[in-house]
Amino acid sequence: MSHHTTSPVADVFVGRAAELDVLVRAVRGSPAVVLVEGEAGVGKTRLVRELLRHPAAAGRTVLLGRCHPLRSPLPYGPVVDALRHLREVPLAAALPPITGALHPLLPELAPLLPDPLPRADAGTERHRLFRAVRDLLVVAGPAVLVLEDVHWADEGTHDLLRYLAHPPREVPLVLTCRREDRLPPTRLADHVLGLAPLAPAHVRELAAGLLRVPKVPENFAVELHRRTAGIPFAVEEVLREIREGTADLDSLRPGSGDRVPVPLLLRDTLADRLDRAGPGVARVVRAAAVLDAPETEDVITAVAGLPATDAAEALVSGLRAGLLHEVSPGRYALRHPLARQAVYAPLPGPLRRASHARAAAALAALPDPPLVRLAHHHRRAGELDAWVHSTAAAVEHAALVGDTALALRLLEDALGDPELPRDAKDAFAVRLSKLALQSIVHDGTVRCLRAVVADRAMSRTARGEARLNLGILLINQVGSVAAGRAEIELAVPDLSRRPALAARGMAALSLPGFGDAPVTEHLRWLGEAERVIGDSGDEELVAAVRANRVSTLLQTADPAAWDAVAALPAHAASVRVRRQLTRTYHNLADAATWLGHYDRAREFLDRGTRMAADSDVPYLAALSDGTALRLRAATGGWDGLEADVHRFTEQAGDMAFLAVDGWLALGRLALDRGDAPLAARHFGTALAAAPDNAPAVASAMAGRAAAHLVLGAVTAACHEADRALAKSRRKGNWVWAAELAPVLVRAHLRARRAADAVAVTAEYAEGIAGRDAPLAAAGLDLCRGELAAARGEHEEAARRFHEAAHRFAALPRPHTAAAAAEASARHCAQAGDREAAAERVTSAITGFTGLGLPRDVRRCERALRGYRGSARRGRRGYGQVLSPREHEVAALVGSGLTNRQIAEALFLSQRTVDNHVSRAMRKLGITSRTALRDGHGAADGTGPRRL
């Protein structure tokens, strides 16, 4: 569809099927006039070429002529160009005498033409010529006359076309012209085909065809459409540059700037059109190119440096010539970015700078100056002080309206400019580092900050502050904990003159969740921060240190954490202090979820979410969403969980660290549903995403070890669990091993490493002693249950698993509770207490049913039938001797407890306890609880026995 017909890729034809159909019908039917109009390069010639290749044109004589952009058009140029082809075509009949009038215009046809006519006056000559052309077309047989670019034709040609277009017509007539130069024959045309630029989908199809690939990325096609406005000629020329290696695909990625070199043919075409348009139009068009955005007539006039009247005339001429377009009412610009580049690039340096200076002055005079563009023009004009001032203003305005991404980009661009003054570099670097902490950043921002803090020209204090914020950013968002801690430790000495700020860095190093440093080291940094901050009057920094203190207390499950939480202010007047409070509640929600304080975690999430609406810290919202997903996976909120996690991980994008909770949630969900291979993959992704997030690493490694056990890979499970154990020992915060410890014990026992299992359980018990961590306490019951089961102590195992089931149900953690209840039932049955086994497996069935796990339900129902069937056949093994459970219940009655108290102590229903007491009294031959408390009765059916 290119205007440039020599392209080797011009055979690709897209997006014009409807228009081609109109042309085909015009050729096949009675002679018709079709006017194909559109701006330069829109594909008029390409459409005509496709018509001439169509079967509808087969058997017809194609008479093709073209006008040329000459300052003085040739008389009847395109018609003469078309009729010359008749010398190669056998004529259907002898030419009538009137065609002798064509001798002066068509000497090539002299052998075919009758004798020349005698000379006459100008009017007669003109009349003879028009008749001669028509009669010649009749004799040419079935023909189609195609004349291109008739907007460049002379007036005589225009009159001849009016004559030929008026009925009766002899041949189909196809004309192409620029939309801005519509011809009088329009009113005689049967069809006017206005060609619009291609849509993005058609640009994508065209690009794939020209590059000879099945398809191109959608974002590539969208950017190509933006750069070219869908003008096929511009699309072809850009892709030609890519095919020939002058440009690459990366130059057409969104945000890559004007990296596509202007195709030579496009540049030359625009230069030629500007030259023909005249100096006034050229100045107006160049002004529009300098402005690089749709602007009003007044602003364009000021930049062009023309008198208002001259500028107005030039603007109208530029619009008529298609060099400028009215993008919106009263605002004008070049057609597309490539056209802007083609006009702007050849401008000499002094002329460019002067134009940008005028642009800056014109924009600054507006009631509401566009600050970003103002900064750009000041920089291009070499006005550095004004550039720095307007950039700073643009950054603050962008931050104020919530466009943090724009503010970051402005600062990064400025910091990458070698002409940025030193004092501005200090201010911009610190501002960039602060804004980065309030948003979700990308690799470019991190690279920019790293380059900035490596610049020794910066002042020590500014470098320290920027380095501090970079370190926090690396930890919070990138997940590069070791690198982040290193940056913060380097920043602290540079902040010797800012002790409160140094305390902020120390406080950042105090959070145990990041890295593998021992908890004692984190607590040391916390103490240093609190000592340094003293009675500082900086409310934000004081809030930051206190936030980290309460977070650290809860992360380590220190019971004192709850008093610290209660002391937190309910609200704050300062936005900055509110941000710290928001961060605090998000940290507390995360910590409470790891500990099993699920209700408190929801409360913290709710508070943090309400505060986040006023604080505008997107990455905190992402962390909050992740914690909520992990909480749902643990507590059985599985409906829609997978879809929500996938949306969450997609939103995290390049910042995989922020998505770790989503992968942990998917891993836990898959493991609980019995899909161990999928669980292992998800936990592996979580581990890769956040290798320095201590609790996440413990959870992910525990999940992978559990998946290995399900698959029977005991050695792999032990290896994974042992690695996790080493990390837990180094960290020293055993409450984060709540998921790991039971899996580790189970793996060691299956590997016949009973001594290791015993040692780990003891170490774990000691590590969580005195800690307020419900999940860890429940995990310890699981460990002890596994040890008891391995020793064959079925009653003890049943009791431990039963206690664990109650603890997990109270959290709630329904799947683990159901699994523990099932294990307890199994050991009750092995101990001979089939009734308790039935009761507990029924509880497991209820839990698995609520989670929608039919396979687990069916397994437990089979076990239940076995337990009940055995009970109907009578209890075996004890006869008139007290069973272990009856002995235990009788002992508790003897200690003075009521049946209800016994039920609570043993995690049994009161009805079950009533039955145990009744059977014990019957076997002992006593009739009152008093006698049972005294410990007498026929324990073996033969005489009294003390309990």
TrEMBL record:
PROSITE patterns: HTH_LUXR_1, HTH_LUXR_2, TPR. It holds the Pfam family GerE. Residues 875-940 form the HTH luxR-type domain. SUPFAM superfamilies: C-terminal effector domain of the bipartite response regulators, P-loop containing nucleoside triphosphate hydrolases, TPR-like. CDD domains: LuxR_C_like (cd06170). Keywords: ATP-binding, Nucleotide-binding, TPR repeat. GO terms for molecular function: ATP binding. TPR repeats lie at residues 660-693. It comes from the Bacteria. This is ATP-binding protein. It comes from Saccharothrix lopnurensis.
